[in-house]
């Protein structure tokens, strides 16, 4: 089982639609969670961090379910500009010392929003 | 100017050649990373460095080496390139948070624009 798994899609939705992506992670010691956005042939950029029970930023809502070990990203009122690949990233907190918290990426979910 | 700069942006080379990808940053971060991205596989960590004296292997370090020449510079080398190293390579930097009693948490990653390498 992959450490971080996402439905690769693609998701094709019309403008104005609501779309949700899920991401599951295998390591229960994982401590922090992120959604990154990657446009075609570009570098990934942070979209949202998810630290506790979830948070909202405008049309975007991220949720965390520790018991079931998954996080989700909800996009409301989709825009053409939301078309991108959405990467789920999980950070396992390291125990002291100088070792870093391992960042593990999912394979990404492709979203296409059409007129 | 970009905070994280990678050179070259595109490179085509032949099997067996030595290739170096360079990364420089103006973020002032101590932590730097090299990732590789293949279609459908997400990003895989090759090497990471916490400071100029600390370099660590990631998930897929075989066939790669790195050098941290300064806080701002982190280069990736392919000593003898092979076709399955054809990929998009990203350099990234980050800061980190310290949580007393529980450890360190890596902060937001800032990526360079990527270096597309093709090995024929």
Can you tell me about this structure?
The complex is a heterodimer of chains A (115) and B (120). Chain A has 115 residues and is mostly beta strands. In chain A, 0% of the residues lie in helices and 56% in strands. Chain A contains no helices and eleven strands. Chain A has strands at 4-6, 11-14, 19-25, 30-38, 45-50, 54-57, 60-65, 70-75, 84-92, 102-105, 109-114. In chain A, the strands form two sheets. In chain A, strands 2, 4, 5, 9, 10 and 11 form a six-stranded mixed beta sheet that branches. Chain A is globular and about 40 Å long. The model of chain A has no long low-confidence stretch (mean pLDDT 88). With 120 residues, chain B is mainly beta. Chain B contains no helices and eleven strands. In chain B, the strands form two sheets. In chain B, strands 2, 4, 5, 6, 9, 10 and 11 form a seven-stranded mixed beta sheet that branches. Chain B has a four-stranded antiparallel beta sheet with strand order 1-3-8-7, with no helix packed on it. In chain B, a hairpin with a 3-residue loop joins strand 4 (31-38) and strand 5. The radius of gyration of chain B is 14 Å and the shape is globular. In chain B, 37% of the residues are buried.
Task: Summarize the structure in short.
The complex is a heterodimer of chains A (115) and B (120). In chain A, 0% of the residues lie in helices and 56% in strands.
Features:
heterodimer, A: 115 residues, mainly beta, 6-stranded mixed sheet, 5-stranded antiparallel sheet, 0% helix, 56% strand, B: 120 residues, 7-stranded mixed sheet, 4-stranded antiparallel sheet, 11 strands, globular
